[in-house]
Amino acid sequence: MVGMWIILIAYLILMVGIGIYYRRKTASVTDFVLGGRTLGPWFTAFAYGTSYFSAVIFVGYAGRFGWSYGVASTWVGMGNALIGSLLPWLILGKRSRIMSKHLEAKTMPEFFERRYNSPALKIVSALIIFVFLIPYTASVYNGLSRLFEKGFGIPYKYCIIVMAVFTAFYVILGGYKATALSDFIQGIFMLVGITAVVIAVLNKNGGLTESIDKMAQIPDASGETGTFASLFGPDPINLLGVVILTSLGTWGLPQMVGKFYAVKDDKAVKTGTIVSTVFAVVVAGGCYFLGGFGRLFVENDNGAPATGFDGIVPEMMNAIPELLFGVVIVLVLSASMSTLSSLVLTSSSVLTNDLIKPLRKKMTDKQELLIMRIFIGVFLLISVVIAIFTLENPTTIISTLMSISWGALAGAFLAPYLYGLYSKRITKAAVMACFISGVGLTLAHMFYFTFGKHTLEIGGLAIHSAINAGALTMIFGLILVPVVSLFTKNKEEDQKYIDEVFECYNKNN
Asked: Which tens digit of pLDDT belongs to each residue from 467-502?
C-alpha cells in the first residue's frame, strides 16, 4: 500500500506542477483553447488517444463487453484503432486543420456557424454539447472511483471529489497546453501499464494458451462451449453495434475533432496519424482483450457477473501484484484525467465562446479566460453531483451513460461535420434536421427503452440497447443529411459564401 500511495501522490504532484508551469504561458483565448495552434504530432496524437480512452473503456466497456462476447471483444479495440483513430486522422485531420484555421473557428459550434453561415447552428450545437457531455463526464468518474475503492478502500464519492479538484486545478491554470503535456505523460503510463496488466492477468491462468482454453470451456447462454474463445464470439451482430458506436462516434465528438484544430501543419497530421493508430492498437486492443477474460475471475450469477458489469475489471485487479495495481490506478487515473480535462475544456470554451461572448461583444481576452475558468468549475461540480447520484443507483452502469452521450453528440454532429468538410451542397436545413434527429432519437430511446424498461429485437439486433441505438442514430444521420440537402437549397448569398470558404483548400496552409 505504501508503494501504491507513493506512485499516486507523485503523479498528482506532477500534474499540479504542469498546470503551474503553463499558467504564465497561456496569454490568450486561442492559447487556452487550442494551444496557439502550434502543437506537434506527438503531443496531438497522444492528446487524441488519451481523450478517447479512459476509465469508461478500461472499467466499463472492457468489463461489460468482455463478459458478453469473450475474447472476441478485442474486435472493439481493433475497430477503435482503425475506424476511431486511423480513419479520422486520414479523412478529417488535414481538412479540419485547414478549414478551422481559415474560419478562425476555435470550437465545433463556431465551426458550424462559420461553415454554414448560421448563428442558429452555433447556439443549438453549443447547448447540445453542454448537456450531453455531462453524462459522459459522470461515466468517467464512475469508472475511476470503482478502482480507487478497490485499491485504496476510499469511498466512491471522495474519489470523485478529489479527482475533480485536481483536474480543475491544472486545466484552469494551464489550459490546452497543460493538458497536452499531461496527456503525453499520461499516454506513456497507459502504454506501459496496459501491457504489464495484460501479461500479469494472463499469467494468472497459465499464459495466453491456457487462458483461451479455459475460456473455451465456459458455456454460453445456450449451453454451447467454445463461443467465448471463438473469433466472433456468441453474438457477432450486437458486437458490430459496439464497434460502430465506440469507433465511428469519435468522428462527431467535439472534444476529439477539436484536436485537429490545434495541429501545427500537414506534416504533423501525417505523423500524428501513425502515432495515434499505434497508441489505439495497444491501449484499446489491450483493454478489450483483457476484459475478454473476465469470466475467469468473476462468478456467473444467472447469466450476469456476480460483481455487476462495472465490478469485473476491478475484481480482476485482485489477481495482480499490489505494486502493479498501483500502476493500474495511475494508468486509469491518467486516462480519466486526460479525458476529463478535454471534456471540461471543450464544454467551458463552447459555453463562453459560443453562448456568452455573443451577448457581450466587448468582452476582452482576459474576461473571456476568466469566464472559461469559472465554467470549468461549474461543469465539474454538476458532473460530480450526477456521478455520485449514479454511483448510488445500482441500476446505472457506465456503458449506458457513455452510450447516451455519444449517441446524442455523434448522432447530431458526425454527418454535418464530415459532409461539411467535403461538400458545398449541404444545407442549413439538413444540418438542423440532423441536430434534431440525433438528440430526439437518443432521448426517445432513453425514456422508452432505458428508463421504460421496454425491449425490442429485430433480426437478432437488440434495438433496446443504448449502444445499438447510438450506432443507428449515427448511421441515420449520414443518410438524413444528404437526403434533406437534395430537397432544400442554400440561398444564393449563402452558396456564394460557401464557395469562398472552400477556397481555403486551394491556398497554401
From this structure: 888 889 999 999 999 999 999 988 888 889 999 999
Q: Which of helix, strand or coil describes residue 458?
A: strand
Enumerate residues 6+ apart whose C-beta is below 8 A from 203: none
Q: Using a CB cutoff of 8 Å and minimum separation of 24, what contacts does 29-33 make?
A: 29/106, 29/353, 29/365, 29/368, 29/369, 29/372, 30/106, 31/175, 31/176, 31/177, 32/175, 32/176, 32/349, 32/369, 32/372, 33/106, 33/107, 33/175, 33/176, 33/345, 33/349, 33/353, 33/372
Contact present, 132 and 408 (Cβ < 8 Å): yes
308: left (phi over 0), alpha (psi -120 to 50) or beta: left
Residue 329 has pLDDT above 60, yes or no: yes
In three-state secondary structure terms, 387 is helix
Name the residue ranges covered by the structural domains of the chain: 2-23+43-380
Give residue 112's Cα distance to chain centre.
21
Query: How far is it, in rounded angstroms, from Cα 187 to Cα 215?
Result: 30
pLDDT digits over 172-184, tens only? 766 666 667 777 7
Write out pLDDT tens, residues 268-315: 888 889 999 998 999 889 889 998 998 998 888 887 888 777 778 878
The SS3 call for residue 341 is helix
Superfamily of domain 2-23+43-380: Sodium/glucose cotransporter (1.20.1730.10)
For 21, counting Cβ atoms within 10 Å of its Cβ (0-12 exposed, 13-18 middle, 19+ buried), the class is middle
Task: Give the pLDDT confidence score for residue 84 in this predicted structure.
Answer: 92
32 vs 215: which has the higher pLDDT: 215
Half-sphere exposure of 225 (CA within 13 A, CB side): 7
Angle at 88 between CA 86 and CA 89, to 5 degrees: 65
